[in-house]
């Protein structure tokens, strides 16, 4: 009886001639403006970059891509030019001098209460 839990990543899913004909029908040039070729590895680069953009943990992305090293996943198959670095920085909490001063005062007040108790 076949397992219902089969790992789809173990199944070959890419038909190279079909990939080439689909790219032609979709008017996708064989090479892009950077000189990158549309092929199976380009799809893997896209997959790796989309995993990273989707905030998938690097170790999980490594497993999904079936890589033996995290370096291969993060430094070869993830395109840093396509990552939302500006958006990531915008999500950081505000670090103004006023907020830091307020936090310092609040911590000082809490420590005074703790010492007097």
General description of the model:
The chain is mainly α and 117 residues long. The protein has a domain at 12-87. It is built from 6 helices and no strands. α3 (58-64) packs across α4. The longest helix has 20 residues, at 97-116. It is elongated and about 75 Å long. The protein starts with 15 loop residues before the first helix and ends with a helix. The mean pLDDT is 80.
Task: Tell me the layout of helices and strands.
Elements: H1 16-25, H2 40-53, H3 58-64, H4 70-76, H5 85-90, H6 97-116
Helix pairs in contact: 3-4
Summarize the structure.
This protein is mainly alpha-helical and 117 residues long. The protein has helices spanning 16-25, 40-53, 58-64, 70-76, 85-90, 97-116. It has a domain at 12-87.
How far do the termini sit from each other? 69 Å
Average predicted local confidence, pLDDT: 80
Estimate the strand proportion: under 5%
Query: Got a strand count?
Result: 0
CA-based shape? elongated
Radius of gyration from the CA trace?
Answer: 24 Å
Tell me the helix content: 40-55%
Structural class: mainly alpha
Number of helical elements: 6
Q: What is the chain-wise order of helices and strands?
A: HHHHHH
- Major sheet attributes: none
Poorly predicted runs of 5 or more residues? none
């Amino acid at each position: 009886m076949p397992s219902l839990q089969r790992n789809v990543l173990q199944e070959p899913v890419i038909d190279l001639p079909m990939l080439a004909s689909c790219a032609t029908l979709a008017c996708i040039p064989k090479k892009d403006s950077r000189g990158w070729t549309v092929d199976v590895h380009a799809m893997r680069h896209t997959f790796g970059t989309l995993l990273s953009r989707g905030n998938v943990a690097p170790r999980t992305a490594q497993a999904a891509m079936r890589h033996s090293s995290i370096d291969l996943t993060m430094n070869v198959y993830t395109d840093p030019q396509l990552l939302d670095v500006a958006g990531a920085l915008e999500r950081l909490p505000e670090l103004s001098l006023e907020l830091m001063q307020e936090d310092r005062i609040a911590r000082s007040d809490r420590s005074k209460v703790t010492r007097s108790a």
